[in-house]
Amino acid sequence: MKHWSWNIILSIFASxxxxxxxxxAAYLFIWSKAHNLFPLRMPLPLKRGEYISQFYKTDLDExxxxxxxxxxxxxxxxxxxxxxxxxDDTGSIIKQGTYSDRIDSGYETVGxxxxxxxxxxxxxxxxxxxxxxxxxxxxxLLIGLPDRNSDYCDVRDIFNAWAVMTAGPGxxxxxxxxFRRLRRSKIQKI
Length: 190
Known about the structure:
The chain is of the alpha+beta class and 190 residues long. It folds into two domains: 6-34 and 152-180; 40-144, Sandwich (Jelly Rolls), CATH 2.60.120.790. Helix content is 38%, strand content 35%. The chain is built from two helices and nine strands; from the N terminus they run αβββββββββα. The chain has helices at 6-34, 146-189, and strands at residues 40-44, 49-52, 56-57, 64-70, 78-88, 93-103, 106-113, 120-131, 139-144. Helix 1 packs antiparallel against helix 2 (146-189). The protein is elongated, with a radius of gyration of 27 Å.
């Protein structure tokens, strides 16, 4: 049986700690780059009229949420009545709905739908009525997976902590072994 030195064993152990530490975070990073959790983001003027988005594609087989987002401070409140419909590139209606409620600063859910994976689609919003000083409000229409995005952020934080706890000591051990090796080679030269 071959005799392995402690330096080789500790180097292998340090390398394993680094790989085990960064593998989950690397996988999550690659997954986040492969999927678009918010395929549509467009400004939505809060004025009567029809607004049509550009085409977008969804790449996950899940229920997407249609939201109106405002981040103005101080909070702007408006009563909004609108109709929306999601259509494919041939004009066929995938899903439609209405929204009649107040919007404040933050996210307001207008509706949700489950599209076919990879289908080109767009949203058509017909604003019927907006009441109460919305001139200063800058609304954004979002279509996406906010729950999945929240889960991603939570898991990312856990995986980053895991990487620090495992890959950090592995990296320190590896640098210690390299420093010791360099020091030993300097002593042998003298």
